[in-house]
Amino acid sequence: MLNQIDEISGIGLHLDLVLRKIQDAYLRTFEQLGVDMTIEQWVILHRISELGEEASQREIVRTNFRNRATTSRVIGKLENKNWITKTRFEGDQKRFKLELTPKGHEIIDLVLPHAIKLRTQAIDNLDVLEFQTFLKVLDQIGENYSSS
After folding, report:
1. Phi/psi of residue 43, nearest 5 degrees
2. pLDDT score, position 103
3. Predicted structure pTM score
4. Which domains does the chain have, with CATH numbers?
């Protein structure tokens, strides 16, 4: 396979094709659940849920590797859908506190079991060693681009 990388337009094509399949699976699931949501919105909504009381816009930017403008735009859309609220932290007027609304909790409760199923589906037919090797290879490819 490695000797065929140049013949098949490189590893980027493979990564892109797999990523598109993953994204399509998530978007189909959202649609089947009747939830009007993008993958970006899901990632940030889920992260707010995970962070709980400590959820801040700054932390979302830091931990999800998205720039401030993109994060701000997605957060605005989540606010417009009434899935989150955005206020200032008490005693810290520089940071925005993000909290799920009751509707946001409903969306998490509805979507999360399906998202977990999709994550599990991703590693079907892989043993632990294969998956660990896959992650190691992805990390190395990322490092290879970080150092250039």
Report:
1. -60, -45
2. 98
3. 0.84
4. 37-146 (1.10.10.10)
